[in-house]
Amino acid sequence: MRRDEVTGTLIETLVASYLHRVTIALRMPYSINYDPKKEGVDFVLKNIATGETIPIEVTSSVKGKDVKGKDIKKVSKAMNNLNSEYGVVIALKGDLEIRDDICILPLHLFAFL
């Protein structure tokens, strides 16, 4: 495995563990799922009570401070497929930003949620 692949895997694992821990600790009625589509997002949070879904893409590869367009497109496509109001990209680097109902959240800020 290349270094960037290892970093990506570690970040995805960290995000999955944190989402799981937060849903249990706060007793949030969410299930954490994987997108079954081949080029799908990394996670889909689903509110068990309402059925609302939130697609989440985790990325460790950024171009400068800008999240790659493919990550935005992936979340946007999942939002359309799942009929979601918004989605999230968790990025290793960058700034907090909202683009077309997609929240781009740097990893260091995600860790404080």
Chain-wise SSE layout:
Elements: H1 3-25, E1 30-33, E2 43-47, E3 53-59, E4 62-63, E5 66-67, H2 69-82, E6 87-91, E7 97-99, E8 102-106, H3 107-110
Parallel strand pairs: 3-6, 6-8
Antiparallel strand pairs: 1-2, 2-3, 4-5, 7-8
How would you summarize what this structure contains?
By secondary structure, this protein is an alpha/beta fold. It has helices at 3-25, 69-82, 107-110; strands spanning 30-33, 43-47, 53-59, 62-63, 66-67, 87-91, 97-99, 102-106.
List keywords for this structure.
single chain; Trna Endonuclease, Chain: A, domain 1; 113 residues; globular; 6-stranded mixed β-sheet; 3 helices; alpha/beta; two-stranded antiparallel sheet
Tell me about this structure.
- The protein is of the alpha/beta class and 113 residues long.
- The protein has a single domain, classed as Trna Endonuclease, Chain: A, domain 1, CATH 3.40.1350.
- The protein is 36% helix and 29% strand.
- It has helices spanning 3-25, 69-82, 107-110, and strands at residues 30-33, 43-47, 53-59, 62-63, 66-67, 87-91, 97-99, 102-106.
- Strand 2 (43-47) and strand 3 form a beta hairpin.
- The chain starts with a helix and ends with a helix.
- The model has no long low-confidence stretch (mean pLDDT 87).
